[in-house]
Amino acid sequence: MPGAPRVAPWTRVPRQDGRRFVVTGANSGIGLETARALAEAGAHVVLAVRSVAKGEVAAASIQGDVEVRRLDVSDLSSVRAFADDTGEVDVLVNNAGILGVPFGLSVDGIELHLATNHLGHFALSNLLLPRLTDRVVVVSSQSHRSGVLELDDLDWSRRGYSAYAAYAQSKLANMLFLAELQRRLTSVGSTLRVTGAHPGSTATAITANTGNGLKTWVGSWGHGLVGMKPWQGALPTLYAATMDVPGNSYLGPHRFKEMSGWPVSVGRSRSASDPDLARACWERSESLSGVGFPLGGRN
Questions:
Q1: pLDDT digits (tens, 9 = 90+) for 200-243
Q2: What is the rounded distance in angstroms from the CA atom of residue 97 to the CA atom of residue 49?
Q3: Which residues, other chains included, contact 93 with Cβ-Cβ below 8 Å and sequence gap of 6+?
Q4: Which of 86, 147, 234, 268 qualifies as a cystine partner to 168, CB 3.0-4.6 A?
C-alpha cells in the first residue's frame, strides 16, 4: 500500500514589511509564536491581550515592531473599545481561546467558551471589516468535528453542562463563521478573504484553567508528551495569514488525524459545511452581540 504523500516542510513566513497585524491572545502559546514570526518577518504586530502586564512580558521576548493593547474578547464592551481605537489593519488573527473551563457566564451573560472563542471574535471582525485590507484568520480546532450547535440552548440551561462539549460547540461556531463571513464578503464583491486554521496537538497552556487539578495535569501532560512545540503549532495559522490561499480555506497539520506536521489544506465536518446552519449561527451571533455585517448588500 502506498504511503501518505510527502509534504514539504513550510517554516518561512514571507516578508511582511509595511503590513499591520492584530493577533488576539498573543501573550502565550500559538498566539505568541504567531506574533513573533510575523514581527520577525517585518510586520507591525498588535498583541491584543487581556492582561497588559503579561502582554508586555511577551512583547519583550519578540524581536521586531510590536505594541501591546488590552482586549478581553469575552467582554463585548472591551471588544468595542478596542475596535474604536484601532486604525487600518491588514490582517486580523482571531486566536484567543479557552478550553475546558468550569461553567460560567461572561459579563454579557454568554457561556464563557462561546463568548471567548466565538462571539467576541465575531464582533471584533465585523467592527474592523471597514478598516481591513486583506483578511480575517479564524483559529479553530479538530474538536469542531464533535461540536453540536444548540442555538436555542447556548447557555446550557436545558442541557447538562460539559466543558469539553461547550468548547467543541464554540469551535463549530468558528467554522460556521468562517464560511458565512466569506459568503457575505463574496456576495458584496469584497476582495477581503477569510481563512481558517487549526494547530493539531500542540503543547500550550490552554488547559490551565479547567478548575480541576487532574484534568489540568492530564491535558498539560498529554499535550506535552505528544504535542508539537508552539512554534510548529502556529504554522497553519501563519500560512493562513500570509500565503495566497483562497477565501474559506482551512489549514492544519498533514500527518495522521491532523495531529502534527506541516500546513496543508484539510477537511471539515458536515455540520461545519452546512450553509443553513451557518446563516442561523450568524443571525444568533448578531442578536447576542448587537454587531452586524457592515459592508451592505442583501445577505
A1: 976 655 444 545 554 454 445 444 555 689 999 999 999 999 99
A2: 11
A3: 21, 22, 23, 24, 31, 34, 137, 139, 237, 241
A4: 147
- Residue from 164, 167, 239, 250 carrying the catalytic annotation: 167
HSE value, Cβ hemisphere, 13 Å, CA-based, for 242: 27
Residues 123 and 92: their CA atoms lie apart, in Å, by 12
Q: What is the pLDDT of residues 59-93, one digit of tens each?
A: 999 999 999 999 999 999 999 999 999 999 999 99
Active site (annotated) includes residue 239: no
Measured CA to CA in angstroms, residue 189 lies from 25, 90, 125 at distances of 31, 18, 18
Cell 466569506, residue located: 182
